[in-house]
Amino acid sequence: MKIxxxxxxxxxxxxxxxxxxxxxxxxxxxxxxxxxxxxFLAAYQTALAGExxxxxxxxxxxxxxxxxxVRALCIEYFKSAMFRELDPRTQKVRRSILERFCEHKSxxxxxxxxxxxxxxxxxxxxxxxxxxxxNGMVKALRQLYTFAVRYDLHDRNPASDVEYLASKNPDxxxxxxLDEIEKYEEKHPVGTMARLALALALYTGQRRSDLVQMGxxxxxxxxxxxxxxxxxxxxxxxxxxxIVPELQRIIDRTHGTGDLTFMVxxxxxxxxxxxxxxxxxxxxxxAELPQCSVHGLRKAAAARLAEQGCTEFEIMAITGHRxxxxxxxxxxxxxxxxxxxxxxxxxxxxxx
Length: 352
Hints:
- By secondary structure, the chain is mainly alpha-helical.
- The protein has three domains: about 60 residues, no CATH class; about 100 residues, Tyrosine recombinase, N-terminal domain (DNA polymerase, domain 1, Orthogonal Bundle), CATH 1.10.150.130; about 170 residues, hpI Integrase, Chain A (Orthogonal Bundle), CATH 1.10.443.10.
- It is about 50% helix and about 10% strand.
- It has 14 helices and six strands.
- The strands form two sheets. A three-stranded antiparallel β-sheet has the order 1-2-3, covered by helices on one side.
- The radius of gyration is 26 Å and the shape is globular.
- One of its GO terms (molecular function) is DNA binding.
């Protein structure tokens, strides 16, 4: 008796070999044969559940997915609402990290219940030369086991006991100085798309994913009103930021702004977030500022607000941060400078 399963199709290659595929919504996923085998049925169930990543499907290279393994836990995690509610980019990054973990010395085939902090710590230490990647791995495992505990698949989170490595650059991206801003402005005058990009970043303090979406439709009575792209599906942050006169002047004098977005490519199309990052990198290099980046302008904007005496909550109202932790890191140097100036003024006043 021939087995017929929904969405399973057969293709014959040029050598006459029969190949099996799961075809749905215009996508095809290769299935291992023969039809009805254990590997085939496991791969079919995975594809049917919506998991199209070949790294986590049964294959001749990886073999059958072991029940109770780390890889099996990953598959369940990827199907959960906890994972699917994440931003698409976050999903992609986290999935990639967990897949690499599974492939490392076949760790994915080991029982997830036996993973201990010492195992994670050992792998973390092997990545000491890449602290950011090591910390990303620890963070991904924390989230994986948070899922396992929350869904009663496990009773503890071994990754939560593993410390992050100290970053070689605790302050993160370089924050632009006033001299660097002036140097960029000299190279890219008002009217160019490069200058508009600088002004939008500096006078709104937003991430590049928000900058590329800003347009005329977000302007209401001299205010920019929009919802930040990051966490827009889970914890949306609605922003209302006044357009300062200098920013409005630059917008008005910029040639070739788009209908839906202020910034457009040479083909009059909106930038993607990554495309804008690459283009801004080129503009910085043209101004001989290799150490500067668009994210550094977000830090510079927060630092300038701190130097003007703004409180953390006032700065958060501009940047859209939900907690003061990141704002404090952004403005640490500026706050120290402001406090030092205030302290010396007090001493001078007392003597006078």
